[in-house]
Structure formats: structure tokens, C-alpha cells
Specification:
The chain has 10 helices and 13 strands. Helix 1 crosses helix 8, helix 8 packs antiparallel against helix 9 and helix 9 packs across helix 10. The longest helix is centred in the last third of the chain and has 16 residues.
Length: 305
Amino acid sequence: MSSTPELICVGHIVREMIYFPDETKGPVLGSPPAYSSVATGRQGVKTGLVTKVGPDMPAELMKPFADAGVDTSGVGSCEKTTASELIYNREGNKEIRYPAKADPIKAADIPQPFRGCRIVYVCTMDNDVLPGDIPGVVALGQVSAVDLGGYGGVHMSKANRDATPSLVDLACGVSKHFNIVKASDEDAISIFGWDDPDRAASEVLACGPDVVVITAGSKGALVYAKNNKWIVPPLPIKAIDTTGGGDTFMAGFLAEYLRSSDAQRSAQWGSATAACVIEQTGGVRADRMPTHEQVKARMERNYER
């Protein structure tokens, strides 16, 4: 592809093993940039992926990007692919480990044709873009968004967490560079140490972003701007597999934000996108992700009656 994408997703894609109490799955394709880019691509958004992989990345795990029309000219080479282990206990709680890590992503890794895109979305697993390199990365797009899961949130490794003097300072220092900041309710607890989404959003908004989105799984989502708060209730669904729900919510949010710049409607579109995804299973597959028309139908059925 030669034209500039509308959206680029920046972060490590992973070769993931998933350990449940009674079964093991993998290796599968995982990570926020994988779920997000395939989901936006399926909705017709011109999407580019900026990541790094090694020769140990199975070719078949890269197929969903081609299936969804994602521009992979930003996929760079390095010695090894990030490998993750997602471990669930019988209570449904999870732990993430990283046996291998790809090289950090810098502004220089973003191809020239990607520069000037409408949205740069930094959605890392574990500081994949180092905080000092963030200003250079976000400067290459018109609007910037970040997922705090890799900056103090639940995706961050124990080693990086232990080496960070203050997760609050890390998250707030990162947030100041972005227009849109997303965190799950679990990320907010991980960063701030207390369960109070309104207070967490207030802390992040004070750093400078225009919009803060806090996803809360089956409880829906909360969207905050300087003088507004919107509650987006969960949709009626038959959940089969919630893995990737937060990432595809944000994919839907950004897809609609490109069209309308309306944070409330974008959150509703994100909720409808995620609902379609978690009613299926199979990880990052193009045919698991809804098209624009499928999300539109879900919106009309649930939000526009």
C-alpha cells in the first residue's frame, strides 16, 4: 500500500501461549496492536501496523493482518519476537509473563508513508515504546491515543513494574503526550492502587489529554472530557470469549472517532464492536472481527432505537 493510513497501531505483537486450569492454547497471535489493527481494518479503516518481530514468528500468525487489509510495511525485523504467557487461575484472574522481548519501537521505525496519519495509537504490551521515545512517535500523526495497559497497567511485566519508582508518575508522564487515553478499570487499579474510576480519570485528565476512556468489561465503559462524563452501558450479549474485548472496544472507538470526533458515540461504537467480538472465540482472526455494516446494525438495534 502506498497511501498514508488513517490510523497506525504501534506496539509489539506477540506469540502468545494461554494457560487455563484445564487446557493450554497456542501459540496464537495476541496483543493490543494485533487485535486493534485487525478490528479497524475489518471496518474499512485504512490501518497500518508498526511493530517488530523476529524469525521465530510463525508465518501463519501474520495472516490475519493480510486478511483484514492491514498495511504491514511498518513491521520491522529484530532478533526475536515478543513471547507472552497468559496464565489464568480458576477464579479467572490472570498473570502475564514475557519470556522474550522484541527491540523497542522508535519514531525512526515508522515508515515515511505512515507519517502524517490522522491517528497514532500507541498500544503497547510492556513499554514497547519507551517513554522517552513517545514524543517523537506521536509527533508523526495528527491525533494521538494511548492504552495505559503497558504503562503501569496490567500488561506491564513484574520486572518493569518493580523497576519503576512510581506507576502513577509513569502513567501521568505518558498521558500528557496524548489526546486520548484509554485504561481498563483493572489498569486504573494497578496504576493508582484504588478502585475509583472517576478519581482515576480526573488524575489523568489533569495531565492534559482531551478524552479519557475507562473500560469496565461487563459493566460497560466511562468516557470523560474536561467538562463531561458519559456512561456507556454494556450491551446485552452472550459472551463466549472476552479476550480482546477491551482492545476491540478501542478499535471501534477510534474507527468512529475518525468519522465524527464524538467521544460518546465513539464509545458506543466501541461497545458494539466489542460485543460482536466476544460473542465468538478464536483469538485474532479477521472473520471474528465485525465489519462496519455489522457494527452499524448493532448500534441501530441497541443505541439508536
